[in-house]
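Re: the 331-residue chain
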Amino acid sequence: MNSPLHDPLIPAAYATPWHAPVLVREVCAALAGHRSERATGLSGARLLDGTLGGGGHSLALLDRGAHLVGIDRDPRALEEAGARLAAQAGAGAFEAVEGNHDDVDAILALNDRTFDGILLDLGVSSRQFDEDERGFSFRPGVPLDMRMDPTAALDAAAVLNESAEETLIRIFKEFGDDPKARRLAREVLRRRERQPFVVSDDLVGAIRAVHGSRSGPPEFARIFQSVRIAVNDELDGLACGLVMLRDRLVPGGVLAVLTYHSGEDRLVKHAIREWSTPCHCPPRHPICTCGGIARGEVVTRKPVTASPAEIALNPRARSVHLRVFRRAGGG
């Protein structure tokens, strides 16, 4: 799509052998305030990377002069990104903090801190997906885990083995856009009565029983993703987390969110649209009684997506949507 944020290239310097951050230049331009004269400079900007992951986006932002705090709930991600960005940390430009972007107000290290820009990259890192022990993949024999925080109590096996039928229907339908969600939920219940779900093959077998023997990666990816979202409470937590993050922006500050799933994208789109609307009274209401004041403006009227050139280099970028919101004020 045509967009003032769009750039067709991925700077290779920010990729690692296991992960290539998406829309790097578009993210940097967005957090520079979406002003063309500042598109390559972020000198002195105070930024928060709410999904630090492999540190690729953070490195790009630091290279452009930002001071940045990166948070992640995965201790291994913090360790690896911290090592990658050790020089920037030593220079006082970078700080890694353990925590969940969905509950930023609970992170003591961030008490009363505000930011010029905040980034959320809601995808699973390629490193997590490629490591079978983390349990995100539908490759044969992979344990059904999928926890972003390895210390969390609920894993994918527990979701499949313990959830009620209506809960499973909601997971498969709302998080996986599965047209056969009810049949799949009943198939899971039927199979777990004989033996519990333990490894990826168990869920793949249920999917094939419902979608047919010719079903494959597209169906597996959607359903496994839906279970991952449920395990990590990604959508319900995101709805609360977006408000907390919005309120951590300084006047004129920017929130940039990368989504990879239709449910995430709808939630982000509706949130920033609501924040940008001054009046929420019913249509044809003669006088405004809600006292609504717009909290800011939508920067991206349509989502920014990856170019064919970027998708060719990084196929996992094919579903990404970037949406940007700027808080009111700041001149």
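The domain at 130-231 is CATH 1.10.150.170 (DNA polymerase; domain 1).
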